[in-house]
Write a structure and sequence with these properties.
The chain has about 180 residues and is mostly helical. It is built from nine helices and four strands. Helix 3 packs across helix 7 (about 135-150) and helix 6 (about 120-130) packs antiparallel against helix 7.
């Protein structure tokens, strides 16, 4: 019993040492490795729809909430908010969806690409976290997990792109707004 206690004490000292923390936080290779391991673990759950839904629910809530909020603000009139996973007609899992009843040229693109608004949220979360949380190895691993969820779910799905680019007038409108913003800002 003393051996186990001594072993875990030594491991605890190693993990809490400033040198170990510095090596973990400042090593981009380890960061990328941890993110890839997290994603591989996530994709390994795809053999079961319910385990996959459990793992994906935080990101699905963020992703679908962005669609809902932007659709609501731009009068797309959200009619449904679904977080129950299901299979589509091609055998793929659909983790969630938001239905709208007023998709038009001016709101299709922003409502469909709304999850991209998670990127600035992740950016500001990064600054907030490192300015307000004491960095330990555990807190750093939590940060990596949370940022992975935020950034991965900021990517619109193929369906989102199809809906967003289905109104050419809207694409031209937002392209012109973007060009004008770049020129005058």
């Amino acid at each position: 019993m003393d051996f186990a206690r001594l072993f875990f004490h030594k491991i605890g000292l190693f993990l809490s040492s400033p040198e170990t923390l510095s090596m973990a936080v400042n090593n981009r290779f380890l960061l990328i490795l941890l993110v890839i391991v997290l994603l591989k673990m996530k994709y390994a759950t795809y053999s079961s729809m319910w385990i996959s839904a459990l793992i994906n629910i935080p990101g699905t809530i963020l992703h679908e909430s962005m669609h809902f909020i932007v659709g609501l603000l731009l009068n797309a009139y959200p009619t449904s908010f679904d977080l129950i996973p299901r299979k589509d007609g091609f055998g793929n899992y659909v983790m969630g969806s938001v239905g709208f009843r007023n998709v038009t040229f001016y709101n299709a693109l922003p409502a469909a690409l709304a999850p991209l608004f998670l990127l600035p949220i992740g950016y500001y979360f990064n600054h907030w976290y490192f300015n307000n949380i004491d960095i330990t190895l555990g807190n750093y691993l939590l940060y990596i997990l949370l940022q992975t969820v935020i950034i991965e779910n900021a990517v619109p799905s193929m369906t989102d792109f199809k809906v967003g680019f289905s109104y050419p007038a809207g694409v031209v409108l937002y392209a012109a707004v973007f060009v004008l913003a770049v020129i005058f800002i």
